[in-house]
Write a structure and sequence with these properties.
- It is a single chain.
- This protein is of the alpha+beta class.
- Among the domains are: 46 residues, Ubiquitin-associated (UBA) domain (Helicase, Ruva Protein, domain 3); 154 residues, Elongation factor Ts, dimerisation domain (Tetrahydropterin Synthase, Chain A).
- Helix 1 crosses helix 2, helix 2 crosses helix 3 and helix 3 crosses helix 7.
- It is elongated, with a radius of gyration of 25 Å.
């Protein structure tokens, strides 16, 4: 067997040496056919992993001129998330989407790239790395010339935030992103809180006030005060600014000549079922070639 052909196939496919050797044997040492053969096998491997839980991974933000993208891609273990190949893959996907007008995951995964499409790239990464890779979500934003992006990536990509301000500056927008990363606001403005959520909170607070023995008129005033406190917990504009708690985030931005248009915060794995590791099962699976 020609060692240089094996090396060439490994460089192209990222597959293991024995897989490359077998692929070349099965395809009369034709590297192109062997690459396709590995890809087909890789797709089969990827399909086998489709039911696994992928709740680790990375998020990232990429900006270029008046466009920005924030995205999250999941894998099964934190170890893979730290892998250089996975990090390059993240950046490749972000750049491809940034240079597009994709609006949905389906449109994004259909975008052309060196691997064929982004969906092919995800499949090939699953086969190469050996874990389920899942393209979870993205937001692509285009701003006006009088607007500013603020990008912030925390803990190497565990949390990413993209802020869009009208006016102010990029530095102010980044400060807002850093605040959002730390304080986890659910909404930007009070007006965005759903009526049902607000009524549910008022009901709980009213019952608490009555349980404390407060008369109805006093209870009503207490509830309004506590609702304002509730807004400060969940709404970005109402929160005390982490760098200066004498002002709210909304006031900080307006003091700098700006207005918050949007803030997108991605925390890796939020809302996903977490993988429960069982070492014995994992070893058994590896021994069985799964």
């Amino acid at each position: 067997m020609n060692a240089s052909l094996i090396r060439e196939l490994r460089d192209i496919s990222g597959a293991g040496m024995m897989d490359c050797k077998k692929a070349l044997e099965e395809n009369d040492n034709d590297v192109k056919k062997a690459t396709e053969w590995l890809r087909e096998k890789g797709i089969a491997k990827a399909a086998k992993k489709a039911g696994r839980i992928a709740a680790e991974g990375l998020s990232t933000v990429l900006t270029n001129g008046n466009k920005a993208v924030i995205l999250e891609i999941n894998c099964e273990t934190d170890f893979v998330a730290k892998n250089e190949k996975f990090q390059k893959f993240m950046n490749d996907v972000a750049e491809t989407i940034l240079n597009s007008n994709a609006k949905t995951n389906e449109e994004a995964l259909a975008l052309p790239c060196e691997e064929g499409t982004l969906n092919d790239y995800v499949t090939n990464m699953t086969a190469t790395i050996g874990e389920k890779i899942s393209f979870r979500r993205f937001t692509l934003i285009e701003k006006k010339d009088n607007e500013n992006f603020g990008a912030y990536i925390h803990m190497g990509g565990k949390i990413s935030v993209l802020t869009l301000l009208e006016g102010a500056s990029e530095d102010v927008a980044k400060d807002v992103s850093m605040h959002a990363a730390a304080m986890r606001p659910e909404y930007v403005k009070k007006e965005q809180v759903p009526t049902e959520q607000l009524e549910h909170e008022k009901k709980i607070l009213t019952e608490q006030a009555i349980a404390e023995g407060k008369p109805a008129n006093i209870a009503e005033k207490m509830v309004m005060g506590r609702i304002n406190k509730y807004y400060k917990e969940i709404c970005l504009e109402e929160q005390e600014f982490v760098k200066d708690n004498s002002v709210s985030v909304g006031k900080f931005v307006s003091n700098n000549g700006g207005k918050i248009i949007d803030v997108i915060r991605y925390e890796v794995g939020e809302g996903l079922e977490k993988r429960q590791d069982n070492f014995a099962e994992e070893v058994a699976a590896q021994m069985n070639g799964e």
